[in-house]
Amino acid sequence: MRAFTTLTGVAAPLPMANVDTDKIIPARFLKTIERKGLGRAAFADMRFNDDGSEKPDFVLNQEPYRHAEVLIAHENFGCGSSREHAPWALLDFGIRCVIAPDFADIFFNNSFKNGILPIKLSREICDTLMEDAKMGANARISVDLARQIVIRPNGEEIPFEVDPLRKHRLLNGLDDIGETMQRASAIENFENGQRAAQPWLYG
Protein backbone atom coordinates (compact mmCIF):
# COMPACT_ATOMS: atom_id res chain seq x y z
CA MET A 1 0.00 0.00 0.00
CA ARG A 2 1.29 3.46 -0.89
CA ALA A 3 2.29 5.46 2.17
CA PHE A 4 0.45 8.66 3.01
CA THR A 5 2.66 11.32 4.58
CA THR A 6 1.91 14.75 3.16
CA LEU A 7 -0.31 15.71 0.26
CA THR A 8 -0.71 18.99 -1.56
CA GLY A 9 -3.19 19.02 -4.40
CA VAL A 10 -6.37 20.18 -5.99
CA ALA A 11 -9.47 19.69 -3.85
CA ALA A 12 -12.84 19.04 -5.49
CA PRO A 13 -15.94 20.44 -3.76
CA LEU A 14 -18.88 18.02 -3.63
CA PRO A 15 -21.56 19.82 -1.57
CA MET A 16 -23.74 16.76 -1.07
CA ALA A 17 -24.78 14.78 2.01
CA ASN A 18 -25.46 11.03 2.05
CA VAL A 19 -23.20 10.22 -0.91
CA ASP A 20 -23.69 6.46 -0.85
CA THR A 21 -21.40 3.78 -2.23
CA ASP A 22 -23.71 3.21 -5.21
CA LYS A 23 -23.08 6.81 -6.23
CA ILE A 24 -19.34 6.36 -5.69
CA ILE A 25 -19.34 3.20 -7.82
CA PRO A 26 -22.60 1.80 -9.24
CA ALA A 27 -23.38 -1.88 -8.64
CA ARG A 28 -22.86 -2.90 -12.28
CA PHE A 29 -19.11 -2.34 -11.85
CA LEU A 30 -18.76 -4.75 -8.92
CA LYS A 31 -18.11 -7.85 -11.03
CA THR A 32 -14.35 -7.37 -10.92
CA ILE A 33 -11.94 -7.94 -8.05
CA GLU A 34 -9.24 -5.94 -9.83
CA ARG A 35 -8.53 -2.60 -8.22
CA LYS A 36 -6.99 -1.00 -11.29
CA GLY A 37 -9.27 0.55 -13.86
CA LEU A 38 -12.09 1.36 -11.45
CA GLY A 39 -11.29 5.07 -11.54
CA ARG A 40 -13.24 5.28 -14.78
CA ALA A 41 -16.30 4.00 -12.92
CA ALA A 42 -16.01 6.42 -9.98
CA PHE A 43 -19.25 8.45 -9.78
CA ALA A 44 -20.13 6.99 -13.21
CA ASP A 45 -23.83 7.87 -13.14
CA MET A 46 -23.00 11.41 -12.06
CA ARG A 47 -20.13 11.83 -14.53
CA PHE A 48 -21.52 10.26 -17.70
CA ASN A 49 -24.66 10.26 -19.84
CA ASP A 50 -26.14 6.99 -21.12
CA ASP A 51 -24.15 7.36 -24.37
CA GLY A 52 -20.89 7.63 -22.44
CA SER A 53 -20.44 11.35 -22.96
CA GLU A 54 -19.45 13.49 -20.01
CA LYS A 55 -21.88 15.58 -18.00
CA PRO A 56 -20.14 18.96 -18.08
CA ASP A 57 -21.78 20.21 -14.88
CA PHE A 58 -20.28 17.51 -12.66
CA VAL A 59 -17.26 18.80 -10.78
CA LEU A 60 -14.88 15.93 -11.64
CA ASN A 61 -15.45 16.58 -15.34
CA GLN A 62 -14.18 20.14 -14.98
CA GLU A 63 -10.67 21.53 -14.86
CA PRO A 64 -8.74 21.46 -12.60
CA TYR A 65 -10.86 18.97 -10.65
CA ARG A 66 -10.23 16.17 -13.15
CA HIS A 67 -6.94 15.86 -11.31
CA ALA A 68 -8.28 16.26 -7.77
CA GLU A 69 -6.52 14.37 -4.99
CA VAL A 70 -8.79 15.65 -2.21
CA LEU A 71 -12.58 15.45 -2.13
CA ILE A 72 -14.65 17.62 0.22
CA ALA A 73 -18.23 16.57 0.94
CA HIS A 74 -21.05 16.87 3.46
CA GLU A 75 -22.41 14.45 6.09
CA ASN A 76 -22.60 10.66 5.97
CA PHE A 77 -20.19 10.15 3.09
CA GLY A 78 -19.89 6.51 1.97
CA CYS A 79 -23.22 5.31 3.35
CA GLY A 80 -25.10 2.41 1.79
CA SER A 81 -23.78 -1.05 0.98
CA SER A 82 -20.41 -2.17 2.29
CA ARG A 83 -18.57 -2.43 -1.03
CA GLU A 84 -14.80 -2.10 -0.81
CA HIS A 85 -14.87 -1.17 -4.49
CA ALA A 86 -15.83 2.36 -3.38
CA PRO A 87 -12.41 3.31 -1.95
CA TRP A 88 -10.75 1.30 -4.75
CA ALA A 89 -12.52 3.48 -7.33
CA LEU A 90 -11.68 6.74 -5.56
CA LEU A 91 -8.04 5.78 -5.20
CA ASP A 92 -7.75 4.70 -8.82
CA PHE A 93 -9.28 8.02 -9.88
CA GLY A 94 -6.60 9.79 -7.84
CA ILE A 95 -8.46 10.73 -4.65
CA ARG A 96 -6.22 10.10 -1.62
CA CYS A 97 -8.09 12.11 1.00
CA VAL A 98 -11.79 12.72 1.68
CA ILE A 99 -12.85 15.47 4.08
CA ALA A 100 -16.39 15.46 5.47
CA PRO A 101 -18.23 16.08 8.76
CA ASP A 102 -18.71 12.32 9.19
CA PHE A 103 -18.58 9.02 7.33
CA ALA A 104 -20.39 5.71 7.25
CA ASP A 105 -18.41 3.35 9.48
CA ILE A 106 -17.64 0.62 6.93
CA PHE A 107 -16.49 3.08 4.27
CA PHE A 108 -14.41 4.89 6.91
CA ASN A 109 -12.65 1.65 7.89
CA ASN A 110 -12.17 0.50 4.29
CA SER A 111 -10.58 3.81 3.36
CA PHE A 112 -7.78 3.42 5.88
CA LYS A 113 -7.19 -0.16 4.74
CA ASN A 114 -6.71 1.00 1.15
CA GLY A 115 -4.52 4.05 1.64
CA ILE A 116 -7.15 6.80 1.67
CA LEU A 117 -7.20 9.25 4.56
CA PRO A 118 -10.77 10.18 5.66
CA ILE A 119 -10.77 13.34 7.76
CA LYS A 120 -13.68 14.41 9.94
CA LEU A 121 -14.11 18.17 10.25
CA SER A 122 -17.13 20.25 11.18
CA ARG A 123 -19.71 21.21 8.55
CA GLU A 124 -18.66 24.83 8.95
CA ILE A 125 -15.01 24.05 8.22
CA CYS A 126 -15.93 21.76 5.32
CA ASP A 127 -17.96 24.59 3.80
CA THR A 128 -14.99 26.93 4.19
CA LEU A 129 -12.70 24.43 2.48
CA MET A 130 -15.24 24.06 -0.33
CA GLU A 131 -15.13 27.80 -0.90
CA ASP A 132 -11.34 27.56 -1.04
CA ALA A 133 -11.60 24.68 -3.50
CA LYS A 134 -13.87 26.66 -5.81
CA MET A 135 -10.90 28.93 -6.49
CA GLY A 136 -9.43 26.13 -8.60
CA ALA A 137 -5.80 25.23 -9.24
CA ASN A 138 -4.52 28.36 -7.50
CA ALA A 139 -6.03 27.21 -4.21
CA ARG A 140 -4.36 23.91 -3.38
CA ILE A 141 -5.03 22.29 -0.03
CA SER A 142 -2.28 20.55 1.93
CA VAL A 143 -2.72 17.63 4.30
CA ASP A 144 0.07 16.75 6.73
CA LEU A 145 -0.73 13.45 8.40
CA ALA A 146 2.29 13.44 10.72
CA ARG A 147 1.27 16.82 12.16
CA GLN A 148 -2.46 16.08 11.76
CA ILE A 149 -3.29 19.35 10.07
CA VAL A 150 -5.07 20.54 6.93
CA ILE A 151 -3.51 23.71 5.55
CA ARG A 152 -5.76 26.14 3.71
CA PRO A 153 -4.45 28.12 0.73
CA ASN A 154 -4.12 31.19 3.01
CA GLY A 155 -1.84 29.25 5.35
CA GLU A 156 -4.34 28.64 8.13
CA GLU A 157 -3.75 25.29 9.83
CA ILE A 158 -6.75 23.20 10.80
CA PRO A 159 -6.10 20.28 13.17
CA PHE A 160 -7.82 16.93 12.83
CA GLU A 161 -7.98 13.74 14.89
CA VAL A 162 -6.89 10.31 13.71
CA ASP A 163 -6.50 6.98 15.48
CA PRO A 164 -2.79 6.45 16.32
CA LEU A 165 -2.66 2.90 14.89
CA ARG A 166 -4.36 3.92 11.66
CA LYS A 167 -2.02 6.90 11.42
CA HIS A 168 0.99 4.59 11.84
CA ARG A 169 -0.28 2.27 9.14
CA LEU A 170 -0.91 5.06 6.64
CA LEU A 171 2.43 6.77 7.30
CA ASN A 172 4.22 3.49 6.67
CA GLY A 173 2.06 2.18 3.84
CA LEU A 174 0.86 -0.84 5.80
CA ASP A 175 -2.37 -2.69 5.11
CA ASP A 176 -3.50 -5.60 7.31
CA ILE A 177 -1.11 -8.03 5.62
CA GLY A 178 1.78 -5.59 5.80
CA GLU A 179 1.14 -5.04 9.49
CA THR A 180 1.19 -8.81 10.08
CA MET A 181 4.40 -9.29 8.07
CA GLN A 182 6.19 -6.83 10.33
CA ARG A 183 5.83 -9.52 12.98
CA ALA A 184 6.98 -12.36 10.74
CA SER A 185 9.99 -13.23 12.93
CA ALA A 186 7.90 -13.38 16.11
CA ILE A 187 5.30 -15.54 14.35
CA GLU A 188 7.99 -17.91 13.07
CA ASN A 189 9.56 -18.17 16.53
CA PHE A 190 6.17 -18.97 18.03
CA GLU A 191 5.50 -21.65 15.43
CA ASN A 192 8.92 -23.20 16.00
CA GLY A 193 8.25 -23.29 19.74
CA GLN A 194 4.91 -25.00 19.15
CA ARG A 195 6.53 -27.59 16.90
CA ALA A 196 9.15 -28.36 19.54
CA ALA A 197 6.59 -28.60 22.35
CA GLN A 198 3.94 -30.55 20.42
CA PRO A 199 5.63 -32.29 17.48
CA TRP A 200 2.72 -34.72 17.04
CA LEU A 201 0.50 -31.84 15.92
CA TYR A 202 2.82 -31.01 13.02
CA GLY A 203 3.28 -34.51 11.65
UniProtKB/TrEMBL annotation:
Catalyzes the isomerization between 2-isopropylmalate and 3-isopropylmalate, via the formation of 2-isopropylmaleate. GO terms for molecular function: 3-isopropylmalate dehydratase activity. It comes from the Bacteria. It catalyses: (2R,3S)-3-isopropylmalate = (2S)-2-isopropylmalate. The keyword Lyase applies. It is an enzyme of class 4 (lyase). One of its GO terms (biological process) is L-leucine biosynthetic process. GO terms for cellular component: 3-isopropylmalate dehydratase complex. Belongs to the LeuD family. LeuD type 1 subfamily. Keywords: Amino-acid biosynthesis, Branched-chain amino acid biosynthesis, Leucine biosynthesis, Lyase. It comes from Roseomonas indoligenes. This is 3-isopropylmalate dehydratase small subunit. InterPro entries: 3-IsopropMal_deHydase_ssu, Aconitase/3IPM_dehydase_swvl, AconitaseA/IPMdHydase_ssu_swvl, IPMI_Swivel, LeuD. Heterodimer of LeuC and LeuD. Residues 1-123 form the Aconitase A/isopropylmalate dehydratase small subunit swivel domain. Its EC number is 4.2.1.33. Pathway: Amino-acid biosynthesis; L-leucine biosynthesis; L-leucine from 3-methyl-2-oxobutanoate: step 2/4.
